[in-house]
Write a structure and sequence with these properties.
Order of helices and strands of chain B: HHHHHEEEEEEEEHEEHHHH
Shape of chain B: globular
Low-confidence stretches of chain A: none
Low-confidence stretches of chain B: none
Helix content of chain B: 40-55%
Mean pLDDT of chain B: 93
Strand order of the largest sheet of chain A: 1-4-5-8
Structural class of chain A: alpha+beta
Mean pLDDT of chain A: 94
Strand content of chain A: 5-15%
Structural class of chain B: alpha+beta
Order of helices and strands of chain A: HHHHHHEEEEEEEEHHHHHHH
Oligomer: heterodimer
Distance between the termini of chain A: 37 Å
Largest interface: A-B, 36 and 38 residues
């Protein structure tokens, strides 16, 4: 532990541990451990979210008035660390971490009432409609069209890279409501049900073979106007606000847990008799280097959490965290592959590997899937190149 | 980015910065073609203590590190590192406790200490002590050499580590004028004077032994840790200065009909430099401010300090080399303060164990079980 704990923090950590011991079932732990993507697949992820909701811990970071826990930054950090260490399924952030802050900042009380409880309790599952086939990094060029018709917007166009759209019952979406002027000034932010007629979801298999991503098509979809968040054409401002939350948050607890998994893998790959092997020392040193990088990131994240508690604007902190954490995560997945060696070349299902039907290791399958899936880390949420643009622009503003 | 300063520290650092602005001439400071840096330090140090009474403040390690941070950007930290922080750590460990008179002399700047531990060939993980304390019919005698001693020209006393045939390691507190001692000064990489000390059967009075055996080993670890954190804090201040200078240069310098700031390849390099600095500073303050915590184990302290030196080492390299590169030809000349900052940055990189040595030390601890 980089930071010593106060007695209160220690007892808080013990409370979390105690809770996890009884609430986190073996099935949930396995799902958490096998997840090689950004977050766990819908059934296990959402089940776990509901268990946390029963305890009142599903949305710790929210304001207390909306169901947050009012924890200190350190408590939030400990909570995340304990969850990660116990292999709790990683939960989808689209509801609790992305659209919820937007609803709190820009939604009407009626909209907050309508959607926030469903997010907190895990009754609704949200997906994010941002990127389009022609609009990736240049998000402001998006063209998915929404035309006002009485009490509805009529939606036509398409969204892409929509993670878990095939599980979601709700979507928050950036649409074009005006073509004149700067591209940024004609965008609106809409929330609607995925069950509306005219919505089609097409799966896009990922580089690892997993199904996380989709393309979503809108054909004359009639979205009720009460799904408009903020003002018409205020969407870009809201989108930027949301992106800060998407990129914000803490990564170090999960990275630390992943590091321990790699250490375990290394010690297994090189039994005592083989530890004179120079390859063992090389890999060990690389792991040590990664540990030091996690230390530095953790310190930076703790600083950001404290700033957040003082209500300071987040500025470029989310961009900094995103670049550092995703590149570190990618580095860890690459190291994991190196540790497992040629075993990563066989691709049975993780269940098959775990059942020992074949003499293949589950961890090797996980390592390769994780490596493949995590190539996306430096692309999603705004590519790391865009993040570096943002950081430099802020520095040079002077 | 000064949220690591509380209100009192902010006041102290502001006053110190104002003082430095009035007294340090950046056009001359630490030039390689001028009188060695330690000469200015020698002149300024007593005045700085008189004007600001820095050693009268009750802030412990935490405040020492903030002061070193503020001094870092003015290439003015070395006297404080040895005569301030290291001296304080040594005085606090002295058995028996130092007299009120000794402490008063230290606070006033009349008692100035230089830390004489390093010997030729020392590396972070290999520091055999060839300096020996041995018995003779006349009493204890010290024989050996100390290398790269910083602040010796300013010192009234030396804090010397030695190996005694009786108790193992011991720390001695020697008058700089003791008979049998000689000093040769050489310019250091960063423009300060570094000294080679020779002890040829220097008679050691009993009172000169600060501590020995396990207590001496413990003090050794403490001195290493405090000084490492000290140079890390200094480095943060130094690198902030280099970063600011670089940003200014990119905004002003025009090439291809536009400011350099407009080129994305330079922007991304800047972003990476900033990331290295932000991490180094966050980790330095995190480790520094939990160092004295009673729940910290010795291993956790060592891991933290080494991790700090790793992150700072990375930042020194990234910002040091980056700042010089982004300044173009001007960056490699003595015309700019930047070049002198780069030498100090490189100096700190190698001082008290470089990045890789600290990684090795962490590696041994992380995989000890």
């Amino acid at each position: 532990m980089l930071f010593p704990l106060t007695p209160e923090e220690q007892s808080f950590r013990d409370e979390v541990r105690g809770f996890l011991q009884q609430a986190l079932t073996p099935e949930l732990r396995i799902a958490g451990r096998r997840n090689s993507g950004i977050f766990t697949d819908y059934p296990a992820g959402n089940d776990w979210h509901r268990v946390l909701a029963d305890k009142g811990w599903s949305v710790p970071q929210w304001p207390v008035a909306h169901g947050g826990t009012g924890w200190t930054p350190m408590q939030r950090y400990l909570f995340e660390s304990e969850l990660a260490a116990a292999d709790a399924p990683a939960r989808a952030p689209m509801g609790p971490g992305m659209v919820a802050p937007v609803l709190m900042a820009y939604g009407t009380p009626e909209q907050q009432q309508r959607w926030l409880p469903g997010i907190r309790l895990g009754l609704d599952y949200w997906c994010q409609g941002y990127s389009e086939p022609g609009s990736g990094s240049d998000l402001a060029s998006l063209g998915c069209q929404a035309v006002r018709d009485g009490m509805h917007y009529v939606l036509n166009g398409s969204k892409i890279w929509t993670t878990h759209a095939h599980h979601a019952n709700m979507m928050f979406c950036l649409v074009r409501t005006q073509r004149e002027g700067k591209p940024q000034s004609g965008i609106s932010f809409l929330c609607f049900s995925m069950q509306l007629s005219g919505i089609t979801v097409r799966p896009i298999p990922s580089i690892s073979g997993d199904h996380e991503l989709n393309q979503v098509f809108f054909d004359d979809v009639r979205v009720p106007v009460d799904g408009l968040i903020g003002e018409e054409n205020q969407g870009w401002e809201i989108a930027k606000y949301l992106l800060q939350h998407e990129r914000g948050g803490t990564w170090a607890p999960r990275l630390r847990a992943r590091w321990r998994r790699l250490q375990e893998a290394l010690l297994q790959a090189f039994p005592l008799a083989q530890r004179q092997d120079p390859e063992y020392s090389d890999l060990r040193l690389k792991l040590t280097e990664a540990w030091a990088r996690i230390d530095a990131l953790q310190a930076l994240e703790m600083q950001a959490l404290r700033a957040q508690m003082r209500d300071e604007p987040m500025g470029i902190r989310p961009s900094m965290g995103k670049v550092l954490a995703t590149e570190l995560k990618q580095h860890l997945t690459e190291l994991h592959v190196q540790i497992m060696g040629e075993d990563v070349l066989s691709r049975p299902s993780m269940q098959e590997a775990a059942d020992h039907v074949l003499p293949l290791s589950e961890d090797a399958v996980f390592a390769m899937s994780s490596y493949l899936n995590d190539r996306a880390a430096s692309i999603y949420g705004g590519t790391n190149e865009v993040q570096r643009n943002i950081i430099a622009a802020q520095l040079l503003k002077g | 980015m000064t949220d690591f300063l509380n209100d009192t520290e902010q006041e102290i650092c502001h006053a110190l910065t104002r003082w430095l602005r009035d007294h340090v001439d950046l056009a001359q400071q630490a030039r390689i073609d001028q009188e060695p840096h330690s000469a200015t330090a020698r002149a300024l140090w007593p005045q700085m203590l008189r004007d600001l009474e820095l050693l009268h403040l009750e802030g412990g390690l935490r405040l020492h590190l903030r002061i070193l941070w503020a001094l870092g950007g003015w290439l003015s930290a070395e006297p404080y590192l040895s005569a301030g922080l290291v001296a304080h750590t040594a005085l606090a460990a002295a058995i028996p406790e130092p007299s009120a008179q000794t402490l008063a002399a230290w606070r006033a700047g009349d008692l100035r200490l230089a830390w004489a531990h390093a010997e030729t060939g020392h590396r972070l993980l290999h520091q055999p002590l060839c300096t020996q304390l041995h018995k003779s019919p006349q009493g204890w005698l010290l024989r050996g050499r100390k290398s790269r001693v910083s602040g010796a020209t300013l010192a009234t006393h030396y804090l010397v580590s030695a190996h005694s045939e009786d108790t193992g390691m011991c720390w001695l507190w020697l008058d700089a004028q003791s008979p049998g001692m000689s000093r040769r000064d050489t310019p250091g990489l960063d423009g300060q004077l570094l000294s080679e000390l020779a002890f040829d059967d220097v008679a050691i009075p009993t009172g000169a032994v600060l501590c020995q055996g396990a207590a001496a080993e413990a003090l050794h670890d403490r001195l290493q840790a405090h000084a490492t954190l000290g140079v890390c804090a200094e480095a943060i201040g130094l690198l902030q200065r280099m970063m600011d200078d670089t940003l200014m240069h990119l905004r002003q310098r025009q090439q291809f009909g536009q400011p350099l700031a407009g080129f994305q390849v330079l922007q991304h390099r800047l972003a990476d430099m900033h990331l290295a600095l932000a991490q180094a500073q966050a980790l330095t303050w995190a480790v520094a401010d939990t160092f004295e915590h009673p729940d910290m184990t010795a291993d956790a302290r060592t891991l933290g300090v080494s991790s700090c030196k790793v992150a700072v080492g990375q930042a020194l390299r990234s910002i040091g080399q980056g700042a010089v590169q982004l300044h173009g030809a001007m960056g490699v000349t003595e015309e700019l303060f930047l070049a002198r900052c780069f030498r100090r940055a490189t100096h700190i990189q190698m001082l008290l164990g470089d990045r890789d040595q600290h990684l090795r030390r962490m590696d041994a601890l992380l995989f000890a079980a």
